Amino acid sequence: MGHEIVGRVSEVGPGVTSFKVGDRVAHFRGGHNCLAFGREPPCRQCATGNYNLCEAPAEELADGSFGGGWTEERVSPVGQLFPIPDDVSDENALLIEPAGSALRAVLRRTPQPGEKVLIIGQGTQGLATLQSVRALQPDCHVTVVARFPYQAEMAQQFGAHEVIKVSADLYAEAARLTGGRVYRGMFGNRMLLGGFDVVYDCVGIPSTLKDALRLARARGTVVLVGVYLAPMQIDLTPTWYWEVDLIGVLAHGGEDWEGERLSTFEVLARLLREKRLNLEPFITHRFPLSRWREAIATAVHQPRSHSIKVVFDYGDGKAPER
Length: 322
Fold this sequence. Notes:
CATH class of the largest domain: Alpha Beta
Number of domains: 3
Radius of gyration: 21 Å
Distance between the termini: 23 Å
Shape: globular
CATH superfamily of the largest domain: NAD(P)-binding Rossmann-like Domain
Mean pLDDT: 92
Structural class: alpha/beta
């Protein structure tokens, strides 16, 4: 349990030269892949830094990791650790992992100047996508769909131009903001004629993906950031009738960034050091592990707790909430 992890190296195995005791590290390459476990030669995806798309059979990779983020100690292969720069806070480093999916989504389809962008969902992924859009293309117009008022307030703090509440008529509001027109088909389906240039679906359930495809303009793009862990039935008509591109994103990997080939984590670390991103406000509550029941309840009951990211803090066992 727990995959968004920051800690210090307490012990190194024989032959480890890239880390020493006391180094701050974040959990980096999750899952089985060639780069995490030293498989040679690496598969073609890992060779380009896209370890998230590793093509090696899992049985060929010996997983030497034990434990997770809900434990005081964890054993990790060297390849699963990312060194945290000294000028990046623990809080920002902790959120590099979830923010990596958001940044990768924006890098897969970066808005152009003047384009209209819609971000569905303003949880951790949605807020990180908003920050990434504003960091990479400050000259586009960004609308977000937020479920709770406190999420809407934070989105506005991070530069959202417009906020649509879940309770509002999404299609009518989208038409107002884009200058498009709502069209209703013979079977009751609605879609927007002349919608958003780019839509990032940071929820990823069938209903939000259906809306995302119908709120994109003809030849627009939908980037699927949220994950729905079940088969879904979805009407893909907009992908052929309006030639809407549908792009998927899996975690983080290798990126082409300013003439270099870097990992998503490395790009994020640069943006954090340049103060173009700030993930710290996402952490709304902290608990020692001994209060795990309260922590889970806080994360689950968002309307009451106003939580975005709830973390366990092992620093002194008495970390205050905030």
